[in-house]
Structure formats: structure tokens, C-alpha cells
Amino acid sequence: MSEHPNDLQYTKEHEWVRVEGDGTATIGITHFAQDQLGDVVYLVLPKVGSSIAKDSKMGEVESVKSISDLFVPLSGEVLEINKDAIDHPERINEDPHGTGWMIKVKFSDEAEVQLLLSADDYDKTLAS
Amino acid sequence: MSSDAPLQRTPLFSNHIAANGRMVPFAGWEMPVQYEGVLAEAKAVRTNVGMFDVSHMGRLYIEGTDSGEFLEHVLTFAVTNLNPGRARYGFVLTEEGGVIDDTVVYQQSPEDGSGERYLMICNAANRPAIVDWLNEHMGDYPGVTMTDFTTESIMIAVQGPAAAAIADGLCVGEEKASTLKPFGSMAQAVKLGAEGKLVEVFIGRTGYTGEDGFEFVADAADGSNLWDALLQAGVTPCGLGSRDVLRLEAGLRLHGSDMDTSKTPLEAGLERFVNMKKDAFIGREALVKQSADGLTQKLVGFKLLDAGIPRHEYTILNKDVQIGIVTSGSYSPSLDTGIGMGYVSSEYSVLANHIHIDLRGRPVEAEIVELPFYHRPK
């Protein structure tokens, strides 16, 4: 059974995106990603107000075992970052699709949203 | 060892799967890296009790006439003067003083003087090298035989402040495991399985976590039941991930990372496990010379003063200049910061010295601190 909710969209780089009707989106890493990483202890996120381009590096998530770069799935501007998750990185393990969210963006290219995967398609990439 | 060789499994493999162990390749074996999570497991060992399957580690009997003399020749520490059941830690060195392996050797010769036997525990990855090295140097000691019983046996390390109570609870005999001194050992009977079968177990008061603890050696056939008995007694299964965090906090070097044949025990800061009073052992002359010449590099412990985790092979900097390399690094739950060990040019090996660690292009300030990072509460 999938741990990845149907109301989110996904990337092959193991991020989830919640697209809102007002042209904004919330981004985090998937349940699968946090499970692979293990205990997250540090989180580095971009500055609020910065412009980000799709597929560029937006930050780092570091667990006891390994460090991974975070890549931007949608171009746009950073509206908000989850300071609570920076102070309490365990949120990413405990609730990756909820309180463990990472950034909110105002996205600039609707076409990029069309490239995101459904939960089913994301799960298929994990199975293959 | 070729990397595509089939992985070996310990007799506890099915226990790991049953406990949701995440299995990874390690030193030619398929071992659990974690069950519940690295930090939860590390906490269990620091505050209560955890157990590790260390069956992959090498177990060798070295016995027969002059086996003690033979070991004195190949080890940096004395074994013939050990009291029965007691053990020491030290090294097997190359002629150049490089560390082939670190090892614990138990004195198991019968007290009536009727023979000689020693039990050597070596690292899993180094077992082939150690077996070859010992065979190669055994020629002058025709009475000595070596038996590698690694795969016919299991070894479980039970570690943590509650380890003594757990060990005592399992033992059937009058003599309790908690009466053992560190590096002492005993043979014990424990009751295992549904039918309460009595099983012979070897118990040594040793470990690799910085906590009190015991290592149990038993027949391979009894391993699964012993693990289950420990599980039922409330011991938390722990994987290689937490073991690495715990040993690093305890300042314990890992062979293959913190030392190898290119490093001597003096460079690794482990001269206390080299008995220079012994008049001869392989590598001694090289150490005497290195001691006289002075060390060009030394292992130091450091903690980061900002967020981040140092990792194996990261660069150590003084200002912009490389002065060394990280050999072990982790997040330390006990200190809530990144910690590590590495080799630096000797002139920088000064306590409280500030250095930088290059965390993937981001230099983070660190302070050289005394090892170990963690002392268990008295």
C-alpha cells in the first residue's frame, strides 16, 4: 500500500508538491525519501524571496547516514520556508507530507506543473 | 575480495528480517544497518540496552605448543601473562608498523598447564588477511594450529547500562556475568528456546560502544534462539549505523577507516596498546624508529562548531590549506553536533586548536578536542 497521498504530486527526485489554486505550491520530500535517508539531523533551505529555477539546487537534507541535495521542481520565488523543520528536522521523518514540509513557492511556469507525477506514477518509479 | 562475490549471511539473518532490519552489504556480509532508526538505537544503548549481531567478525582458536610464544611474535601486546579468561586489545602489524588489524585476544589455556589455547577476535573484512598472515608466520612454531570457527558460531554484543542485568538474567549458573571485570570472560550455561534447552555460551565483558556490555559467543545452531531470548528480555536490536555512531562517540578507531597498513598505532594515537617492553614483535623496530624520528601526522578528534556532519575523506583545512583528511565522521546525539576523527600534520595536532572541515565546498569551523567524545556516567 502506498504511503504517498493521492492529493500530492511528485518528482523522480523524491519530492512532493502540493499545488494550490492561487499559483503557489508547497514542496517537501516524500515518505520514501525520508525512509531511505533515516534520521534527518540538518536541513538547509533557500532564503525567502529568492528566485529559484527548476532543477537547480535549493538546499540540503542531511541524515546521520548521508547528505542529499534538494532540487527545485518548479521555477519561481520562495515565499516561505519551514523554520520549524530547520529547528526540528525530525519532523521530516515523522510527518514528511505534513509538518515536515520545506518551502512554499509562487511558481512562474504552469507547464512545469504538468510534468509532475501522480502518486501512482511515482510509486511505479519506485517499483521499477 | 571481489565486490560481486555472493554475500554471506549470519545464522541470525532471519531474526533480522523478522525485526524489520534493513540489510546492506558490509565486508562481504549481508548485515542490518538499522531496524527502528539509528538515533533510537543509539539512545537504547546509551540509556538501557541494545544488541548487535557481530557474527561476521572473525573468531579464531590458536592453540598447541608455543601458541603463546607465536602470538607474542605477531601481536603488539602480551598474552602469555594474561590470567585465565582475561583478554587484551591491540594490533597485528606489518614489518613497517602498519596496522593489519586490531584484535582482542582471550587467554583460554587450561589452568592446570596441560596445554595452550587463545581466542582471537578480528574484524570481518580482515579475517582473510589475518588468517593468511598468521599462517605465513606460523612456520617457526610447528606445534601451533589455527582453527577459524567463525561460520560455525555466532557472536552477539549486548551493550548498555542494563546489559549486566540482562546477562545475569540469562545465566543459569551460580557465577554471574556481572561479576566479570572488563575484558574478563566465562563459560556459562543459558536456557534457550521453548523447551528450555541448556546451551553453552562464552561471555566476554567487552564491546565497541563506550558502554558496559558483553559479547556472547555460541554455536551457530543456538544463535537464533539466543537472539530471541535477548529480544524477549527487552533488548533493542541495533544495526551497523548506530554501532558506528556509538563507537565514534567513544573515540574507538575503526580499522579500514581510521587505520590501515599505511598507518601505525603511534599515528593513530593508540600507543597504549603497544607493549614496547616486549623485546620483539613484528613491527616493533619500525615503531622504535618512528618514535625517535617523530610523527609527521597524527589522528585527532574534532567537533564542529556549526551545523553539518563531517564524513570519511572530507578535507581538513587550516585557513585555505589542506592539512589533513577526515577518516570518520558522524552526527553525535550525545553532543548534538557533528564530530569526527582524522589525520592532520603533527604541528596542527594541538588540543583546542581551531581547524576547518570542508563540507562539500562549505568550510565549517571545528575544534580539536580530547578523545573520547563521550564518557559513560560513573
**Spatial gap, N to C terminus of chain A:** 16 Å
Q: How many domains make up the coordinates of chain A?
A: 1
How much of the residues of chain B is beta strand, in percent?
25-35%
- Going by CATH, the architecture of the largest domain in chain B would be 2-Layer Sandwich
Describe this structure as you would to a colleague.
The complex is a heterodimer of chains A (128) and B (378). Chain A is α+β, with helices and mostly antiparallel strands. Chain A has one domain: RNA polymerase II/Efflux pump adaptor protein, barrel-sandwich hybrid domain (OB fold (Dihydrolipoamide Acetyltransferase, E2P), Beta Barrel), CATH 2.40.50. Chain A has helices at residues 31-37, 83-87, 90-94, 110-114, 119-127, and strands spanning 9-10, 15-19, 24-29, 40-44, 51-52, 57-63, 67-71, 76-81, 103-107. In chain A, strand 2 (15-19) and strand 3 form a beta hairpin. The model of chain A has no long low-confidence stretch (mean pLDDT 95). Chain B is α+β, with helices and mostly antiparallel strands. Chain B has 2 domains: 1-295, Gyrase A, domain 2 (2-Layer Sandwich), CATH 3.30.1360; 297-372, Elongation Factor Tu (Ef-tu), domain 3, CATH 2.40.30.110. In chain B, the strands form 4 sheets. In chain B, strands 10-11-12-9-3-13 form a 6-stranded mixed beta sheet. In chain B, helix 2 (38-47) packs across helix 7. The N and C termini of chain B lie far apart (43 Å). Chain A binds chain B through residues 38-39, 41-42, 44, 62, 64-65, 67, 93, and chain B through 33-34, 37-40, 241, 245, 307-309, 311, 330-331, 360.
Write the layout of secondary structure elements.
The complex is a heterodimer of chains A (128) and B (378).
Chain A: E1 9-10, E2 15-19, E3 24-29, H1 31-37, E4 40-44, E5 51-52, E6 57-63, E7 67-71, E8 76-81, H2 83-87, H3 90-94, E9 103-107, H4 110-114, H5 119-127
Antiparallel strand pairs in A: 1-2, 2-3, 3-9, 4-6, 5-8, 6-7, 8-9
Chain B: H1 13-18, E1 22-26, E2 29-34, H2 38-47, E3 50-53, E4 58-63, H3 67-74, E5 87-93, E6 99-107, E7 117-122, H4 127-137, E8 145-148, E9 153-159, H5 163-170, E10 185-192, E11 197-204, E12 213-219, H6 220-232, E13 236-237, H7 240-249, H8 284-293, E14 297-304, E15 315-318, E16 321-332, E17 337-345, E18 354-359, E19 362-369
Parallel strand pairs in B: 3-13
Antiparallel strand pairs in B: 1-2, 3-9, 4-7, 4-8, 5-6, 6-7, 9-12, 10-11, 11-12, 14-17, 14-19, 15-16, 15-18, 16-17, 18-19
Helix pairs in contact in B: 2-7
